Amino acid sequence: MTGEQIHAIGRRRAWAVWGVAIGVYVLAVFHRSSLGVAGLLATERFDIAASQLAFFTVLQLIVYAGMQVPVGVMLDRFGARALLCVGLVVMTAAQLAFAFADSFLLGAVARGFVGAGDAMVFVTVVRLVAVWFRPTQVAMTTQLTGWMGQMGAIVAAAPLTLLLTHLGWTRAFAATSSIGVVLLVGVLLVVKNSPYAVATGPAESLREVATSVGRVWRNPGVRLGFWVHFTTSFPFTVFVLLWGFPFLVRAQGWSEVAAGTLLMAMTGWVVLSGVVIGQLTTRLPFHRARTAIVVVLAIVAAWTAVLLVDGPSPVWLVLLMAACVATGGPTSVIGFDIIRTFTPVRAVGRATALVNVGGFVASLVTVALIGIVLDVVEPAGAGAYDLDDFRVAFAAQYLCWGLGLVQMVRLRRRARAHLHDTHPEATALLRAGHQWLPLDDRP
Can you identify the CATH homologous superfamily of domain 7-195+213-434? Predict the structure, then answer.
């Protein structure tokens, strides 16, 4: 239950809470993305093949995706501050363990716990945005959250490459794990769950939890958000998290520095394209799903051109593909904005968690398929990869693109019909470019 308001909404205190929370998210993205530039080193350190390297990331993503619904329930129950603290502790310990791991099994376990800590962060930050900012601020602040979070991917690109080169595996990963201790102090001092005095209700039984999650999922707007996130985010995640760096180095003939720089530049493009996507989301809320569909079609077209070129692609085409893929990052945030139209704030944690599962399910499926295909077409290992190997392997992306596009088109119609039937006034307001929230979300 929500009681007396004790802090101003959308003012200085809100930005302070958001600032500390976004620092945790930046660190989470860094830990998540760190294997992207360390992948080739990992094959040597652990003496593993491509499918085993992919297993590190797949396990991390499985744990992340599998924990989303429990995290959403815990978020609604215990609040954002507790989950940020637990997530930081788990991520810090896991990354430190990864620094000293010297076998495939130990490395895999460490990456799994990185996924567990990471799973508690983004949905928590989105929940803080939902309760600490005014409805007119939420769309752009959520986009800003995505942009700032990608700073972690920037740090995991060229700077981490330099750390690994000069400090070595153990010292580089151990040093980066220590950042979590500093942020933990910040969370304890600054972050509050809500600007309102919140009374904790009775604990839910497992049956009540399952019923409430099922009720949220049956809402076509939530399912639309899931498929928007599923289809738009996985190309960027797959490319930056693991397979982009080897593709650029082995298939396109780029130097490691150039490949790391492109990964960093892609994250910068996330910010630039996010400004446009954020404005479109704010000004044209009725057409949010259509915006996502257009971006996905652009990504598919750009990747198709790269894969069909005879020989290494010209630099301009690789840059165009990278820009389209990076635009999928901020576009995926549209999924979280959509559910704000269909879900009251008391259930935002669960709805956000369900949507967040989408992109990571698509990512883990694609990461695993690429690794398996590479092992089949090139049994000699990572040192023998060439363009033809990656051309076959990256075709695995079309599976998730096709499924996602069909579901987005289908559920876009159902979500609009549902909203028109339940809240006829909402459709007119959204068409006119105004924000609309469920009744118990309005101030």
Answer: MFS general substrate transporter like domains (1.20.1250.20)
